[in-house]
Amino acid sequence: MKFWLGALILLSPFCQAASFDCASDKLSATEKAICGDEYLSGADNVLNRQWSAAYGNSLSRGLLKAQQLDWLKQRKDCNADVNCIKQAYQRRISQLSSLTAFSPLSKYFSADKIDPPMAQGLVSEGGYQLRDNPWLIKPLTSEYALAFAAEKRKEDISGYYVVGHAVADDNLFIYLVVEMNEGNNQLIEVNDQGHARHIRMISSEYSAYADPDGQDTPGKMHFYLYNSATSTLRVAMDVVADGAVVDSEEETSVAGPLPRYERGTWQGFCSDVPCHSYSQSPSEKWRVASGNFMSTDERDGVYLFEANRPDSGVNVFSQKANDRIEKDFSYMRNFVWGEGETFYFDNEGGMACVWRTDITSKTTERIIPVESIKYPYYLKYRGREMVVATDTDEHGSLYIATSEVK
Predict the structure, then answer these.
(1) 69-84 burial code (b ≥16 CB/10 A, e <16)
(2) What's 110-177 look like in SS3?
(3) Are 315 and 208 part of one and the same domain?
(4) Which of 36, 91, 198, 209 is the most interior residue, by most CB within 10 Å?
(5) How confident is the model over 243-256, as pLDDT tens digits?
(6) What's the rounded Cα separation, in Å, for the pair 348 and 352?
(7) Alpha-carbon 204 to chain mean position
(8) Which of 97, 130, 145 is the last residue of a domain?
(9) What is the residue range of 63's domain?
């Protein structure tokens, strides 16, 4: 991959140095020093490999490019001082190598935390193929970083959940409501460079819910604050990519039900057992439902319904009674709709992990086979489908997964 930044080529075939042509008669004093020094020329090669890897894995490409421009200025300020240039390369290579990359699960989880592969040829009662298709994953933040941003101790945090996302200047930002054991909860912004910043307080009397109709507005983050005893507020914030205070914030009262937020309001019949829908698809063609949380009914499953046909439920997962899967499991009931006719869910107990169901291809794939990973949140960044999910073990890390790196 080649990446142009102004008149400089950061990634290109090299003659002595990797990032520019040493035969050119327009080299700066710094570039001449790099071409004339074997160590600096080699360091330039290493930096270009690191840059290529970092750029391909980055969810903060705008910030990454700005940081690279700053570094190029610092390198140029060294003029022909070989030692100064050497130190500049060493610092930048260290910075780039510290950025996390999308990797197989085994890089971030020990073997005992990753579930073994499923049996081959599994098919749900509704005719959906059940199979493994593990995505690549990388960490975003941890409870320690969230506590630091909130100016609290880790012990003060009771939990957190994703409430929204935004893309500003080619940078992806994730927004979390951090729940406190005492006092107000806090809205925190994180990115994949390890940065976390406090945005605003949220009364513990309110719950927050991502606005499904506002997440694709560039530079804006939208969510709802709601309380059964008060009117709902729709909040929209201008997102600032450089980490400054949010430019502006608007709150608008909302009448009526929240868009596509129908938890417990629609009842269907899962194998003739009453079950409840969590949400309707963006196309309004489908609903997904399961039995009540921690249901012990052996016919419990994950059922797909036509939008208003309570008798049309098709099980896209396994019933509890299916010994080929495992009896000891239940559903966390965390459903989220993805691109097209796809949705994601999690479960706990046997076969616990995050799953992706594609209605068109009639497949249900296990994409994150780690028992402690739960609460999927779907988004797209630069055309890639991604899922943010929480590791509920003692470290409380937040991860993001994708099927491929471009």
Answers:
(1) eebbeebeebeeeeeb
(2) CHHHECCCCCCCEECCCCCEEEECCCEEEEEECHHHHHHHCCCCHHHEEEEEEEEEEEECCEEEEEEE
(3) yes
(4) 209
(5) 555 667 777 887 76
(6) 4
(7) 25
(8) 97
(9) 4-97
Q: Of 97, 126, 159, which marks where a domain is finished?
A: 97
Same domain flag for 173 and 304: yes
User: What single string gives the DSSP state of each residue in 260-276?
Assistant: T--TTT-EEEETTEEEE
Placement of tokens 């080529």 in the chain: 9
Name the residue with tokens 């930096």: 47
Average pLDDT taken over every residue of the chain: 83
Lookup: tokens for 19: 């990032």
Could you give the CA distance from residue 97 to residue 134 in angstroms, rounded to a whole number? 24
Determine the residue type at 377: Y
Of 23, 19, 21, the residue nearest 75 (C-alpha): 19
Nearest CA-CA partner of 67 in 151, 120, 5: 5
Residue 222 to residues 122, 124, 208, 216, 225, Cα–Cα distance (Å): 40, 37, 10, 9, 10
Q: Which is nearest to 128 in space by CA: 368, 403, 376, 358?
A: 358
Contact 325/122 with Cβ under 8 angstroms?
A: yes
pLDDT digits (tens, 9 = 90+) for 176-203: 999 999 989 999 999 999 889 888 888 8
pLDDT at 293 exceeding the cut of 70? no
Tokens of 199: 């945005």
pTM of the model: 0.87
Handedness of CA 82, 52, 368, 210 (dihedral sign): positive
pLDDT, tens only, 300-349? 678 999 988 999 999 998 754 344 444 444 454 578 889 889 999 987 65
For the chain, percent of residues with pLDDT exceeding 90: 44
Q: Could you tell me if 179 and 90 lie in one domain?
A: no
Cα 123 to Cα 80: distance, rounded to the nearest angstrom = 67
d(CA 44, CA 200): 43
How many CA atoms does the CB half-sphere of 18 hold within 13 Å?
19
